Amino acid sequence: MRERNRLAGAVDAVRALTREADDTAELIALAEAEGDAAMVADGVATLRRLAAEAKRREIESLLSGEADGNDAFVEINAGAGGTEAQDWAEMLMRMYTRWAEQRGYKVQVIEESEGEQAGLKSVTLQVSGANAYGWLKTEAGVHRLVRISPFDAAARRQTSFASVWVYPVIDDTIEVEINEADLKVDTYRSSGAGGQHVNKTESAIRITHLPTGIVVACQTDRSQHRNRATAMGMLRARLYEAELQKREAAAAAEENAKTEIGWGHQIRSYVLAPYQMVKDLRTGVERGNPGAVLDGDLDAFMAAALAARVGATRSAASAQAE
User: Fold this and answer.
1) Which of 90, 177, 200, 294 is the most exposed place for a label (fewest CB within 10 A)?
2) Which of 123, 128, 75 is nearest to 101 (CA)?
3) For 142, which DSSP code?
4) What is the pLDDT, as a whole number, of residue 258?
5) Contact status, residue 209 vs residue 178, Cβ threshold 8 Å
6) Strands 141-148 and 266-271
7) Mean pLDDT score across all residues of the chain
8) Crossing angle for the helix pair 299-321 and 37-60, nearest 10 degrees?
9) pLDDT band at residue 322, thresholds of 50, 70 and 90?
10) How do residues 165-181 score in pLDDT, each as one tens digit?
């Protein structure tokens, strides 16, 4: 049913675009015949909006990966730099939350670790919506911020880093085997404001997968059992995503995304001072309005990265075929 609804939605969207484009073209022709310049301008603006929507739908049609239609976990970790980097991690959390809200996606905080003074040391979000992982997977990597520090009395320029990992929420249609003997399970008290219960019992769960070193944690629920179930789902997703990265690296001759999460390997720079610009270092896409980007205007960056990623995969597949 989910696959049927996804396909039906895609078909309905194309039909709606075609219908609206035809109606707008007729309206413009009528307005030109009557000499109504204002109506013509409105029609042209509508066509431009439809063209942008059609372009987005075209890119979205590239989301044909096994897990592209699934929900996604977004894990943000502050880099070295203390409060500066932790504040940057919180800014990234807000950016992805705003992007998701603009698309009508649901966002849930699975785990977060607050900074000593401000910001976040780490946070894990679950973004739920059609093709959430397909869009967000291009955001995995290191993000670099250059700005005048709000925490420096001398108002000096500072550079901060934060890493973003994205992996799909997997369902029962995808099997991932996990040996219980390979797991180390720790319980601890949840952090945050809490209440009468949340901070008084060790309901939070941290699971370490010993063979790979992958660590997941969940503290969103007051029940330790439900937190464990969520954490196990996250672990299955991380293991599955690691396998996807291996397949992609073999097919497209690209480095595993996890190995790129290191300083000096940033995928995007956000410069707020001395000039204003956001530049994706993989695709060359630039925007001169960092405020809009940090408010969730990420579609241009995601679309370019997705198109480049699909193109590289197809080129590698063609080369192998030859």
Assistant:
1) 177
2) 128
3) E
4) 40
5) yes
6) parallel
7) 83
8) 40
9) low
10) 998 887 666 667 788 88
Q: Tokens for 276, please give them.
A: 């204003």
Provide the edge-to-edge strand list for the sheet that holds 183-188. 183-188, 204-209, 214-218
Q: Is the pTM of this model over 0.85?
A: no
Given a contact cutoff of 8 angstroms between Cβ atoms, the answer to whether 137 and 245 are in contact is no
In the chain, the amino acid numbered 254 is E
DSSP string, 251-311: HH----GGGG-STT-EEEEEE-SSS-EEEETTT--EES-HHHHHTT--HHHHHHHHHHHHH
- The pLDDT tens digits for 275-308 are 999 999 999 999 999 999 999 999 899 988 888 8
Please, are residues 87 and 115 in contact by the beta-carbon 8 Å criterion? Answer: yes
Distance CA 13, CA 5 (A): 12
Could you give the angle at the alpha carbon of 141 between the alpha carbons of 64 and 212, nearest 5°?
85
Cα-to-chain-centroid distance, residue 52: 21
Higher pLDDT, 132 or 308: 132
E strands, 155-235, are: 157-168, 183-188, 204-209, 214-218
Whole-angstrom distance, CA of residue 3 vs CA of residue 63: 13
DSSP state, 190?
P
